[in-house]
Amino acid sequence: MAANTFEEQLIMTKSVPRATAFPGDRLSRRHLIQSAIGISATSVLASAASAFPDESSVPVVDTHLHCFGGANSKFPYHAKAPYRPEAAATPEHLLMCMKDAGVDYSIVVHPEPYQDDHRYLEHCLRVGGKKVKGTCLFFADRPGSVDGMAGLVNRNPGQIIAARVHAYAPGRLPPFGSNEIRNLWKTATDLGLAMQIHFEPRYASGFEPLIKEFSNTTVIIDHLGRPMQGTVKEHDVVVRWSRFPNTVMKVSALPDQNKYPHRDVRPVIRKLTEAFGADRMIYGGGFNAKATGESYREYRNQVGRLLAHLSAADRAKVLGGTAARLFGFV
Residue limits of the Amidohydrolase-related domain (predicted)? Predict the structure, then answer.
């Protein structure tokens, strides 16, 4: 399956490097109560396990897709955009694909071309209504950037579920170990958001102190922790994050075994499912500008085949049950 974004192309082709806050409208309200009575992130994640009577009733939730306005002058790409997709991947197209593919809910992961300008994300949320939520992107090391997070969340109550941080490009790393990145994490936490981290394994150590300090803030680990962009030893650091009960692993951006480093992803996914368990795993992907209902469904089926070692009930959790509860869709 071809990569559909610059981000996924990096994941599929890049060489191996050198050797709770609780999002969603329902969960945000719960967070206010938890602040007073001390209920942890573990409790909310555990509640996903018993949310549905059987797998046939579990909704399907795609937790990772990007929308782009393309050449739409109303929603220009940011001056600092690291890439600029020409093809539009609109929320209208998304809703059509969701309907045809049997996807009940989705999360628009605000992409880097817009940087901290969220106008197109807000457009997507208006079009998507109750079926769509989103993540935000603010920069700890840019003066004034994080200050915009509260306004975005307040304008879109219950629809912003996480703040995302990237750590994969050496020239654009977050300021690890600084008060600035701690302020970003705390701001998201205070607003009832999760933290969503997208990184190469060699940068995992920069996040670990924050995962520990903000132990009640849910941390979503994107793209399997990008196992093919690190050595097995480096990625094992990410696998061991399963010991932190506030971490959630995302099965997304499946690497192409036909491309370098030609490693089979199946053992990685098995290791991650054994470490995190279905109650702390979610899936995402398959939507892009060229997607059809058929191709979108096939991506989900591909994920399902990679989870064949799980029971039907546990596969249903990964494909939607866990995310539906965690992000307040049900």
Answer: 61-329
